[in-house]
Amino acid sequence: MTENFPLRFDAPAGSTKPPALSIRGLRKHFGAKVAVDGIDLDVPAGSFYALVGPNGAGKTTSLSMATGLLRPDAGAVWVHGVDVWASPLEAKRLMGLLPDGVRLFDRLTGEQLVSYAGLLRGMDKDTVAERVHDLLAVLDLAKDAGTLVVDYSAGMTKKIALAAAMIHAPKLLVLDEPFESVDPVSAANIRDILTDYVSSGGTVIVSSHVMDLVQRMCDHVAVIAGGHVLAAGTVEAVRGGQSLEDKFVELVGGRNQTAGLKWLRSS
Ligand SMILES: Nc1ncnc2c1ncn2[C@@H]1O[C@H](COP(=O)(O)OP(=O)(O)OP(=O)(O)O)[C@@H](O)[C@H]1O
Predict the structure, then answer these.
(1) Which residue, among 150, 127, 153, has the nearest Cα to 140 in the 3D structure?
(2) Closest by alpha carbon to 186, among 155, 152, 226, 219?
(3) Distance, CA 238 to ligand 1 centroid (Å)?
(4) Which ligand 1 atom is the nearest neighbour of the CA of 63?
(5) pLDDT in tens, the chain (267 residues)
(6) Under DSSP, is residue 236 helix (H, G, I), strand (E, B) or coil?
(7) Total structural domains in the chain?
(8) 182 is in which domain, residue-wise?
């Protein structure tokens, strides 16, 4: 991004592979609001990495900049060693994204949308058709394949966007709130798919508010608040013997000690 950063990010000492994602000095403001205030982060290749933080912490802004959707004010990002902002096409080929709040082509059917994502990635038609079939089946969307995405529920929309993110079998999946609005059976299926993907060498980054899920599913976590990284590392190291939820509250604070809303009590 700036001339002070290298175009390639090398493997760390003792490793042959660069991290799946490296972030240095990432910063973004919106008017007077500093959303991301100089974040550094390394996501090891082959990890299942969670980004957690309170509402407004800067998670979506950081992930948007890390994946080439939002231009940073300062800092640099590399995906598997490739500079996202200097070599966007090369970097984006390596990634699958489930962004938060980005409009889909919702006048397509679910099947058309996922096929379109595969064809855009340069895949041949037969492979696209085969993978669309598999993805719709495993995400329990086969019966709604011909329904327009605009008529999907929130959870169905999340699942079809996830299918579109995965169809080209990327090396890195970046998923902003992948389980939001998704029913428990579909969530369990998605967890199995992601765990399998990680055990075969892929890397997943998820943002989530569900600490229990992160503790069970992920091996690494970064806690972000106020645009800063408060803690990052393996889940075990970050939670330090406490539950991740307790550690999160300790790090982030903000539990409300007042007597609550007296006027809301019915007796
Ligand atoms: N386009 C924008 N214009 C102005 N302010 C923004 C914009 N996008 C984000 N912000 C602000 O930046 C801060 C970080 O927002 P962000 O969406 O990154 O937080 P988050 O951690 O993803 O939150 P949540 O958990 O609620 O989704 C917030 O204060 C938000 O109001």
Answers:
(1) 153
(2) 155
(3) 24
(4) 18
(5) 545 677 677 777 667 689 999 999 999 999 999 999 999 999 999 999 999 999 999 999 999 999 999 999 999 999 999 999 999 999 999 999 998 877 899 999 999 999 999 999 999 999 999 999 999 999 999 999 999 999 999 889 999 999 999 999 999 999 999 988 888 988 898 898 899 899 999 999 999 999 999 999 999 999 999 999 999 999 999 999 999 999 999 999 877 766 678 888 887
(6) helix
(7) 1
(8) 21-102+170-250
Listing DSSP states for 41-69 in one string gives EEE-TT-EEEEE--TTSSHHHHHHHHTTS
Inside any domain, residue 238: yes
Verify whether ligand 1 is closer than 6 Å to residue 68 (CB atom). Answer: no
61 touches ligand 1 (CB under 6 Å):
yes
Give domain status of residue 16, yes or no.
Answer: no
* Binding site membership of 33 for ligand 1 (Cβ less than 6 Å): yes
**Which CATH number fits the domain that encloses residue 178?**
3.40.50.300
- pTM attached to this predicted model: 0.90
Is residue 4 in a domain? Answer: no
Pocket test for ligand 1, best of 34, 37, 59 (most atoms within 8 A of CB): 59
Question: Which ligand 1 atom is nearest residue 227's CA?
Answer: 14
Q: Would 133 be classed as within a structural domain? A: no
3-state secondary structure of 37: strand
State the complex-level ipTM. Answer: 0.97
Nearest CA, atom 30, ligand 1: 56
